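Lab notebook, bench 4. Still working through the backlog of constructs that have no structural model yet. Next entry is a single chain of 258 residues. Request: give me the structure tokens for it.
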Amino acid sequence: MDQDISFLDDPGISRKIFYPRRSLPVKATPNRSALAFEVDEGITLTGVMHKAGESAPNILLFHGNGEVAVDYDDIGPLLTDIGINLSVLDYRGYGSSSGSPSYSRMLSDAVKLFPKFKEMLERHGLHGRIFIMGRSLGSAPALELASREEISGLIIESGFAHTYDLLVRLGVDAHLLDMSKEDLASNLGKIERVTRPMLIIHGEMDEIIPLSDAVDLYSNAGSEVKELVVVHGAGHNTLMFYGQDEYMSAIKRFIGTD
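Model written out:
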């Protein structure tokens, strides 16, 4: 990370952003394997990969604040069925990952693990294109990567544009937020630098991150190839309930597995 955003690591902020949950280590199956990447001395991030095939495109997904990688065990097979490898990584303190979460480390860890992720794919003969995906809180590390790395495309699900607005909605005391540094924390500046193809999916009735954030992300995206899919009737956590077919069709269309 080029800019210091450690001011967002204040404990009063972290307590409102992160809701870490632990999970048991992943048990491997023929199409499901455990992931582990050392990002700092003594700090390993773990996760799970759902494998479709060696030439299949790859999605590296950063999840929401109350989720863990194994929560995607239902979605993973849906994606492998349409020819996509899905890898989901847990933040520090989540799943089986070591350490404790913080906003700045969430972003810097994403940058550190990405080359290791590419090396892992190569080592296992997985040579398909790489897409980055971020859901909700995960839109921040996804945008951090997409704004600086060569990837095939970016998917943002239920992502936020205005970081300070979200923090206040989550219950952060506004006095803890330095208004002079708001631009450093905003996702809008990062998405302006993303020129790769982009898909933004958002629920029409999202009660945590309003649809207007998705519209702002779409409007400010630097990509010439971009699409905004609004799932009608869906809230923050009900996209698949209200629009599973629409959701999967959009991803399939965007990644090009039709």
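Notes after review: The chain has a mean pLDDT of 95. Strands lie at 32-40, 43-50, 58-62, 85-89, 130-135, 153-157, 198-203, 226-231. Flag for follow-up if needed.
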